[in-house]
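Entry 12.
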Amino acid sequence: MKKITFLLLCLFLVINAKSQILFSEDFDGISGTTAGGAGTYSFPSGWIKVNADNLTPAASVSYVNEAWERREDFNFNVADSCAFSTSWYSPAGTSDDWMWTPLISGISSITELSWNAVTYDPLYQDGYEVRVMVAPTSPTGSTGNIGNMVTNSTIVFSTLAEASSWTSHTVNLSAFAGQSIYIGFRNNTYDKFLLLIDDVVVSNPNNYDATIVSIDTISEYLQIPISQTNQPYTMGAKIKNNGTMPVTNVKLAVDVLNSSFATIFSDTSIAISSLASGVTTHVSLSPYSPNTIGKYYFKYKVIINEADNNASNDTLSNYWGYRKTDSTYARDNGIIISALGIGAGNGGYMGQDFEIMNQVDLTSITLNVSRGYIGKNLAAVIWDMVAGVPNAIIASTDTLVYPNDSAATYTLGIYGPNHAITLNPGRYAVTMVEFDSTLSVSQTSSLHINGRSWVNWPTTPMGGWANAEDFGASFAKAFCIRMNFNACYSISVSTTAVNASCSGCSDGSATATVIGGTGPFTYTWSNGGTTATITNLPTGLYHVTVVDANGCYTTATDSISFSVAINEITNSNIIVYPNPSNGSFNIEIPAVINEISSIEIIDIYGRIIAIDKEKKNKFHFDGIATGVYTLRINSKDAVFIKSIIVQ
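Predicted 3D structure (C-alpha cells):
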C-alpha cells in the first residue's frame, strides 16, 4: 500500500483557564502585523526561542521557520492563536526546539504550572519536555547550539506523544518555592508533525477547583441518517479536582445544542459524594437520540457543592458537531489528511463497513480520491458480511471513467434498473475497486474505528480480508467513503385517536405524529383537515397524508368509533363478502345486534356516499370508483366499522 500525507483537522474544544495568576500567556492579542501570513507573526515579548537542531522544515510546515511560531489554531479554532513547533523535517531528523518564558517570581509551596497542548495528527504525535531553570542562571542556547539549556535545567514534565485533542496539564512547582524561574518547552521528537502549546499559566491554586479534563467520543459516525436513529449518542467526561481540598456532591451536566446553538436537551449525572484533591474520575450521562435532521453540539459543565474558586475551567464544549442527516451515512469528517491505495498490480478492494439498523434503500456511494487516472475506470461495490468479514458482492455502483487526474469527490449511483438496493438490518462493507491503476482513496482524521476498515487483493500477505490498521498504525484512518440512502425512507407517521362519546356524537379526535423527515410538514386529512390534530369528528375512518420539506410523503389511517361495555359483539362477528368486490357485496350481521338504525358507506374523505335505513343485507353500487371505503353500521349500543375494497 502507499501513503500520501496531508494536514490534519479534527476536534475543536473550548478550554478555559484562570486562577490566582503569577504569569499567563495565551498567545492572543500580540501587537504586530499578520499581513505576511503564517511564519511572520510577532511572538510574545520576553520569551526566548532557540532552534538548537537547525533543521529545515518540510514544505507543508515551512511556516514554522523558527524554533516556535505563533499563528492561528487553524484546526480547531482560527480565532485562537497558539505556539507551534514542528518535528517534520526534510530530510527527517530529531527536533530540538525550545521556548522559554520570561523570568517568573513569587513561586511558593503551592504554586502550579498549567498549560494546554495538542498534536494535529493522531498517528504522528509529537512528544516534548517541560523544564525549569532557576535564576540567576538564564538560557544560553542559540541556533545549532544547545548551550546550558539541558545541563542547567530540571525536567518537570515529559511525554513521548501528546494527545490529538486539546489536553490540559498541571505540574506542581513547590520544589522551586522562594525562587525565580524560567520555564522551557522543548520539542524533542523525531519525524512527526506539529505540536501546539497554549494558555501557559503559573498560579497559586484554589482550595476548590473542579475541572473537566476530557470528553467522550459521542458516536463512531459523524453523520447518521435519520432512518438509522436508534443509535443514541453516548455522553460523558473525565472530571478532575484541581483544588487543594476535597469537593463534594460532584455532578456532570450537559446541554445539547442545535445548529443555532439553542439548548434542546439537558441532563445531569448522579452525584459523586466526594472527590479528593488531584483525583480524576469518569462520569457518564444518559444517552441522547435526536430525531430531527441537523447538527448537534455538546456543552459540559462540572457542578460541586462548594463555591468553585476557578469557575472558568468548569466547562468544556465539543464544537465538532455531529450531524443527523436525511440520507447520508459517514464516518469521515471531510478533512483529508492522506490517501491509500494497494498498488499490487492485480486489482483489489478497499473501504469500510457500516451498520444498518433499519431497512433502507441505498441509492449511491459518495467517495473522494486524492488523484484520478484519466480514462481509467472508477467504481465501488457493496458486500454483505458473514462472521464480521466481507463475504459476497451484493451490488455495485455504475462504473465511471475518471475525467482527469485531479483530486475530486464523486457520487456513484447504484447499478441496476431501480438504481437502488434494499438493505435489511445488518452490517455491510462499501469498498472502492482497484482496477488496473493504484487507488488513491482519501483518508480523514476522524473517525477511525479499529475493525471497520477493510482491504483485500489477490496476493495480499494476509491471505484474505484484513483491516487497514493491520498493515500499520499509520493506515488507521477513516476512508472518505459514504453511503447515501433514499431520503424518503426517513419519514413515517403514526396516529392516535380519541373515540366519540356516543354513536351519533361528533366529539372524537385524531392526531398524526411524524417520525423523521424534514420539517415543516403539511397534513391532508380525508375530512379536509390540514393540521396535525383534527377534532369534532363523528365515528368513521380518517386518512392522513403527511408531506415533508423534501417532498417525501407518508400516510396513515385511524378510526373513530363508539362502543359500550355491555356490548361484547366485535367487528369480527360481522361478515362482509366478497371483499374486495366489484361494487356488490353482502353483509351478515349477528342477530344479537339489536336496533340497527342505519348502514352507511363512507369514502376516504369522510363523505357518506350511500345510506341504508332499511337495514338490508346486500349493497350494490353502479359507477363507484375503485378504492377503499368504510362500512359503518350504527346500532343502539355501538357503531361497527369495516373496511371494504372496490376493484
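Annotation: The longest strand covers residues 194-204. Confidence is low (pLDDT under 50) at residues 1-18, 563-570.
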